[in-house]
Amino acid sequence: MLLRETSRVKLRETRAFCGCLVVAFGCATSDPDGQLSAGGFGEAGLGDSSAPEDSGGASSAGTAGGEATGGMGASTDGTSGADSSGAGSSSDGGTPFGCGNGVVDAGEQCDDGNDDDSDTCSSMCKVPTCVDGLTNGAETDVDCGGPCAGCATCGHCNTDTDCAAGSICGQTAGCVPPPVEITVDYRQNCGAGGEYGVVTPLADGMYRATALSSAGAAWSPPYTPPSNGWMYVMLCVGQDFDQMRTPPGVYYGSQAEAFGALMAPTQDFSVVGGSLSCYWADIPCDDNLGSVSMSVERLCDPDMPER
Q1: Which has the least CB within 10 A, 3, 17, 261, 262?
Q2: At residue 3, what are phi and psi to the nearest 5 degrees?
Q3: How many Å is the Cα radius of gyration of the chain?
Q4: For 110, what's the count of Cα atoms within 13 Å in the CB-facing half-sphere?
Q5: Contact at 8 Å (CB) between 218 and 236?
């Protein structure tokens, strides 16, 4: 009699455990003792009698494979859990799915396996154009240079052909107007305060002056350096070329010797007002000789490395 009762208890426990396994895989089953939850593995269903029960004897939490009433991987709206928009197309009409995997899939013009917009294939897997608002392909700046139209002033460039007509690729790799040469004659452009100076129109901005081989003298020969003789000094209204000159108070026996003694061959400066007026100041001017010349070029970014 005791053996028969023990067998019945073991049979009831076995049925309960089997019912738990069936529920764990998302199948409906009956629970004769009302102790098992309909939850799956990791939920209250695996013999966890402390889990809350609802009126149907099932846990209110979803199973690992979907809702309690669905099959494995099923969702409440009857879909299989996969993206209903389909692979190989964008959900919003933008970047195709798979873009950047190195394989040209449907909807892609190219795919180089990266998201770099500056190379020959954009992050949206499209080939570069001259109207896409990017610096890519062989362009040197946004939609200009290389195979596209020439860049405007201060657009980045590698060669003169990257710039719009009438511009060159300047010293700081930006498109600029050609350099302007300015010469001040120590006799003709001489006066008390620049009234006979040379006025050169220049757009406001940064410039670089480069001294050209030349020199002037404030007194007629014979010269007795260092008390008098040849020198290089460029005077301009509102500018102080204190480095691109010969040392103050020192004079030289020839123009070549004076030019070779420059403290610096170039000097950067800024223009405000749309022009640069340069001159020589002296009274009288008739005993002066020679002239000084410089080339002036627009700078786009003085901090950029020179080409």
Answers
A1: 3
A2: -65, -40
A3: 43
A4: 15
A5: no
Distance CA 122, CA 143 (A): 14
Residues 6+ away with beta carbon under 8 Å from 63: 24, 26, 38, 39, 40, 43, 45, 70
Q: Is residue 283 within 8 Å of residue 211, measured between CB atoms? A: no
| Residue that the structure tokens 């692979």 belong to | 87
Residue with tokens 């120590």: 186
Q: What are phi and psi of 64, to 5 degrees?
A: -65, -20
Q: Which residue has the tokens 């026996």?
A: 253
Could you report the per-residue pLDDT of 219-266, keeping only the tens digit for each? 877 777 767 889 999 999 999 999 999 999 999 989 999 999 999 999
For the record, the structure tokens of 38 come out as 């309909």
Please determine, looking at this structure, whether the domain spanning 180-299 carries the CATH number 3.10.20: no
Q: pLDDT digit string (tens) for 125-181?
A: 988 899 999 898 899 999 999 999 999 999 999 999 999 999 999 989 999 999 999
Cis peptide before 284 (omega within 30 of 0): yes
**In the numeric block, which tokens belong to residue 123?**
């992050």
Count, residues in the chain: 307
Return residue ranges of the chain for CATH 2.60.120. Answer: 180-299
In Å, how far from its chain's centre is CA 88? 30
Instruction: Retrieve residue 30's tokens.
Output: 């009956």
Predicted TM-score (pTM) of this structure: 0.60
